[in-house]
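Sequence design from tokenized structure. All designs in this work follow the same two-part layout: the structure record, then the generated sequence. An example of the structure record is given first.
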């Protein structure tokens, strides 16, 4: 993994166009080829990124760029879609490379892992007639908890938490953005499942078209929870 702190400007071109004006940012070029552009804020979410399969190629800055102070240019191109991320670097403040090795992956706590297992066995709670595709479905930024298809074959990505907050909705939003680029899956619906979902998280999820699902852990284990029921 290469970590570069640089004064840079960034342009994304493809199915959408976006521009980041000149500022100091962190550029993360990972071993899988992906490039993430971070600011000193916004938690874990990058300002822009290119996910694999992609390729980074350095370019010589043009005459106008060089005269404006650009010292080097990175072009990162997605090998399937042709989308491109072009980074104009004016000054590098830090540049280091690190070998991280193989990551064992996220180890969920007992209750969250049980919720994932139980919901995978009870996918009808997500959508009647649904079928499980895979647990821990991989994306470039980590696995989404469940990938299922509804009775009509539409893909549904499910993120599971014990307590659902805004960070969890943001996490699922990023997964959905990446999964939606796969023509074999798109369009992908999102379900945010938790034992408890905070009001702010529910509002944000529904605003983004993500369905919320409250999980009764005891009921899923086949034990009466004591929660009052209508029937």
């Amino acid at each position: 993994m290469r970590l570069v702190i640089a004064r840079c400007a960034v342009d994304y071109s493809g199915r959408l166009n976006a521009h980041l004006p000149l500022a100091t940012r962190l550029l993360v070029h990972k071993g899988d080829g992906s490039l993430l552009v971070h600011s000193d804020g916004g938690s874990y979410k990058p300002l822009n990124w290119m996910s694999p399969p992609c390729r980074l190629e350095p370019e010589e800055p043009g005459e106008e760029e060089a005269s404006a102070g650009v010292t080097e240019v990175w072009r990162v191109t997605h090998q399937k879609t042709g989308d491109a991320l072009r980074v104009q670097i004016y000054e590098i403040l830090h540049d280091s490379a690190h070998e991280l090795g193989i990551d064992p992956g996220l180890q969920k706590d007992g209750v969250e892992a049980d919720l994932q297992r139980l919901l995978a066995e009870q996918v009808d709670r997500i959508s009647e007639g649904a079928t499980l595709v895979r647990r821990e479905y991989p994306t470039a930024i980590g696995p989404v908890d469940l990938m299922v298809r509804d009775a009509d074959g539409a893909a549904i990505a499910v993120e599971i938490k014990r307590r659902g907050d805004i960070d969890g909705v943001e996490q699922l939003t990023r997964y959905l953005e990446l999964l939606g680029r796969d023509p074999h899956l798109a369009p992908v619906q999102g379900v945010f499942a938790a034992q408890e979902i905070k009001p702010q998280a529910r509002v944000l999820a529904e605003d983004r078209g993500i369905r919320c699902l409250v999980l009764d852990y005891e009921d899923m284990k086949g034990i009466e929870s004591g929660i009052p029921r209508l029937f």
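The longest strand covers residues 84-97. We note this feature because it recurs in several other targets discussed in the main text.
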